């Protein structure tokens, strides 16, 4: 057992990616130092630590994909690569003195709400601890999803190599190998041009083609970086312009999908420039409205697909027979390695199975019909539990850091409200408030390109509901999460005596809540 086995803290943050580190910084800025950051890996960085595949880079401009409270004047490129983003997160960890709060190698295996003590009992791979409040920042892009392909075990037994893009095997040399790339998402379009020059043959199994636009990337000059260091307001202005442009684009995604037609024409022209073979061009041209699935950015994806050592199979991988990969349309390819770029458990996050709330059920059970939360942050039946990048907080065209910072505002006010209420207190969102918020979100979702664009994307859950994206601007979300409205919560206090078996903790009356709000 670790030395932290019986530790109790005010706040336990789960995960050390952008969300977890941002929460830690905000807690310190709020004067809260009694907290820990529980991280299952041996280093900070989240998805930018895990995704180290060849060509990994961000598709959001660097000056917008960084914390407003920790600007980086030295970004080397307009769109930075994974090593620079990971280095930025390490830098944030050091500058804001977060390392004493880190508990690396502490994977959370279970969290249970103790209704008598009004605190969370947390089990980790290195011992147990408890916390008054849990901030879950595990992120939706943290647990890779590999489809259950028949014959995959036999392929491994036959000497074939299998790995996911987020668990890249750097010890395996792809030089001269016959490689199957499964998937055509954001990771795949970066991997394909990065490995194509050195593999013997590359077969891309494409279930659905993606819309790919040019990547307006370039090196940031030394003069620009000098200017941003000497005159910080110039970097702030640059960030503001990048933000404003993307805010203006939101209406086409969320209210007027027909306006995406012009963008679609530009995307088709992008295909035509690089792909001269009409048959290949037809296989790579989507049949759904652009924006329905994530729009991807690349200058070298299409040129790579046109190379003679690349085959594009317009069908998903269906099975593997020995060393033969077989597509759903019957196409076959002899391969030495299979790389899955098949995404993550986004609408069925594994962490939800490890959170047991006030009613004795897991978050996964509570969300069995689809994820629902109040303002993307709190879930009914789970007192003093918050999530960063929760349901319906994702974006289709801008920086998630903007949404994270909005949720940090909400977290900070949540903790202030607990302090004002005093004593050992918990807040749990009212089911009717959660339902009202989600009706609002889903009603707005109906007009969006993500619902009307004619595609089946990872934004949708098993029931066809978009529980992933936010159907509005980042400014709207910032206003909606600026403060906690106590009318949307029940206040729970420690019972005067231990309740009988099966009895729930007493909830504060509406009068008590009004007094607390006053």
Q: What coarse outline follows from CA principal-axis ratios?
A: globular
**Tally of helical runs:** 16
Classify the helix fraction into a percent range. 25-40%
Class inferred from helices and paired strands: alpha/beta
Low-confidence stretches: 508-518
Beta strands, count:
20
β-strand percent reads 15-25%
Global Rg = 24 Å
Give the mean pLDDT: 93
What is the distance, rounded to the nearest whole angstrom, between the alpha carbons of the first and last residues? Answer: 45 Å
Biggest β-sheet description: 8 strands, mixed
Concise overview:
The chain is built from 16 helices and 20 strands. The chain is of the alpha/beta class.
Give an overview in words.
Helix content is 31%, strand content 18%. The chain contains 16 helices and 20 strands. The strands form five sheets. Strands 1, 2, 3, 4, 5, 6, 17 and 18 form an eight-stranded mixed beta sheet that branches. A five-stranded parallel beta sheet has the order 7-16-8-9-12. The chain has a three-stranded antiparallel beta sheet with strand order 13-14-15. A hairpin with a 4-residue loop joins strand 4 and strand 5. Helix 1 crosses helix 12 and helix 6 crosses helix 7. The chain starts with 6 loop residues before the first strand and ends with a helix. Pfam families: FMO-like.
Describe the secondary-structure layout.
Layout: E1 7-14, H1 18-29, E2 35-39, H2 47-50, H3 82-95, E3 102-104, E4 108-114, E5 119-124, E6 127-136, H4 152-157, E7 161-164, E8 178-182, H5 188-195, E9 201-205, E10 212-213, H6 222-230, H7 232-254, H8 261-274, H9 278-284, E11 296-297, H10 301-305, E12 310-313, E13 317-321, E14 324-327, E15 332-334, E16 337-340, E17 355-356, H11 363-366, E18 385-387, H12 400-421, E19 425-429, H13 431-445, H14 449-452, H15 474-480, E20 489-493, H16 510-517
Helix pairs in contact: 1-12, 6-7, 12-15
């Amino acid at each position: 057992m670790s030395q932290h086995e019986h530790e109790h803290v005010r706040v336990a943050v789960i995960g050390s990616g952008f969300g977890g580190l941002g929460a830690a910084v905000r807690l310190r800025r709020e004067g809260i130092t009694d907290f820990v950051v529980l991280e299952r890996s041996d280093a900070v960085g989240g998805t930018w630590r895990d995704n180290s595949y060849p060509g990994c880079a961000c598709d959001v401009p660097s000056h917008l994909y960084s914390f407003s409270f920790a600007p980086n004047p030295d970004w080397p490129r307009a769109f930075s690569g994974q090593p620079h983003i990971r280095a930025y997160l390490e830098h944030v960890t050091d500058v804001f003195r977060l390392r004493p709060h880190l508990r690396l190698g502490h994977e959370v295996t279970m969290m249970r709400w103790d209704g008598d003590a009004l605190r969370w009992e947390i089990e980790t791979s290195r011992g147990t601890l408890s916390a008054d409040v849990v901030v879950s920042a595990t992120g939706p892009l943290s647990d890779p999803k590999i489809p259950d392909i028949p014959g995959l075990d036999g392929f491994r037994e036959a000497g074939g190599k299998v790995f996911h893009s987020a668990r890249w095997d750097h010890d395996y040399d792809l030089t001269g190998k016959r490689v199957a790339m499964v998937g055509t998402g954001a990771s795949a379009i970066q991997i394909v041009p990065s490995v194509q020059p050195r593999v013997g043959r590359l077969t891309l199994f494409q279930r659905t083609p993606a819309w790919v636009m040019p990547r307006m990337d370039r090196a940031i000059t030394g003069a620009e970086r000098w200017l941003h260091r000497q005159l910080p307001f110039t970097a702030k202005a640059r960030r503001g312009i990048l933000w404003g442009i993307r805010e203006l684009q939101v209406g086409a995604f969320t209210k007027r999908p027909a306006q995406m037609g012009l963008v679609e024409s530009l995307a088709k022209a992008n295909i035509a420039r690089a792909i001269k073979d009409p048959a290949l061009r037809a296989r790579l041209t989507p049949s759904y409205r652009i924006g329905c699935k994530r729009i991807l950015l690349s200058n070298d994806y299409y040129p790579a697909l046109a190379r003679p050592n690349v085959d594009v199979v317009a069908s998903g991988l269906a099975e593997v027979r020995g060393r033969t990969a077989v597509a759903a349309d019957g196409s076959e390819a002899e391969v030495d390695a299979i790389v899955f770029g098949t995404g993550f458990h986004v609408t069925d996050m594994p962490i939800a199975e490890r959170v047991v709330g006030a009613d004795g059920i897991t978050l996964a059970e509570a969300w069995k019909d689809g994820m629902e939360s109040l303002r993307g942050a709190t879930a009914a039946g789970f007192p003093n539990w918050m999530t960063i990048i929760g349901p319906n907080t994702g974006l289709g065209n801008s920086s998630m850091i903007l949404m994270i910072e909005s949720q940090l505002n909400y977290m900070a006010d949540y903790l202030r409200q607990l302090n004002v209420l005093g004593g050992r207190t918990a807040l749990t969102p009212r089911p009717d408030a959660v339902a009202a918020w989600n009706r609002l979100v889903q009603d707005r979702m109906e007009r969006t390109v993500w619902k009307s664009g004619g595609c089946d994307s990872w934004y949708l859950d098993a029931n066809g509901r978009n529980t992933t994206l936010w159907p509005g601007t980042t400014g709207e979300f910032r206003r909606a999460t600026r403060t906690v409205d106590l009318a949307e919560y029940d206040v729970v206090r420690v019972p005067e005596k231990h309740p009988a078996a099966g009895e729930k903790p007493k909830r504060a009356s509406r009068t008590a809540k009004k007094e607390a709000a006053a």
